[in-house]
Amino acid sequence: MYKSCIFDLDGTIINTIQSMTHSISLTMGEFGYAPIDEAHTKKFVGDGYRKLVERALLYSGDNELIHYEEALVIYEKTFQENCLYQVKAYDGMPELLKDLKAKGIKLGVLTNKGHDRAVECVESVYGKNFFDQIIGEGNGIKVKPDPAGALLMAERFSLQPSSCLYFGDTNTDMKTGRNAGMDTVGVTWGFRDRQELEAFEPKYIISHPREIQHVFE
């Protein structure tokens, strides 16, 4: 029986694609580049904002990454102002989380989004202190797929990694769970397709939050 569920943020518990698409497009616009469409933003995110900026610049034609350092500063400021832009919970996720909480399952969020923005985003949708732990990028914790954040969360819950179930929507998430010794759940409503998730052989693949509830019955 799993005693904790640890969730990725973007593309897993909250649909944040509009906020990131809007912010990276505004950033690229500062250098005269065209907006980044949603489809490409979905491909660029998942490995932290530095990789998002790098991938967006390369896609826009800055092959030497001449604007990289400046773009990082601009994106951080822009995203701070727009991180709640059109964010919303995925269908069925609030119900799943409330059910797990009622069963005494420890709930955590582990994300490559900057920690302060992660807390702000999660609390805006689910309220303050709904999750038992939120860990975002920063404070010396290596970004996913390094397992450090997942293992730290298990330690804070006083649980073995094998007692934790890790949810995510990208290959980065599947690697994170595997690297931490946790069973993984690939969710298909996020930013990547089922084929990407299947390649990493998660314990479960679900297309709606209700499909995992039987595990906790």
From TrEMBL:
Pfam families listed in its UniProt record: HAD_2
Coiled-coil intervals, chain numbering: none
InterPro entries referenced in this protein's UniProt entry, alphabetically: HAD-like_hydrolase_sf (IPR050155), HAD-like_sf (IPR036412), HAD-SF_hydro_IA (IPR006439), HAD_2 (IPR041492), HAD_sf (IPR023214), PGP-like_dom2 (IPR023198)
GO BP, one annotated term: DNA repair
GO cellular component term, pick one: cytosol
An MF annotation (GO) of this entry: phosphoglycolate phosphatase activity
Superkingdom, taxonomy of origin: Bacteria
Protein name, per record: Phosphoglycolate phosphatase
Organism expressing this protein natively: Lacrimispora xylanisolvens
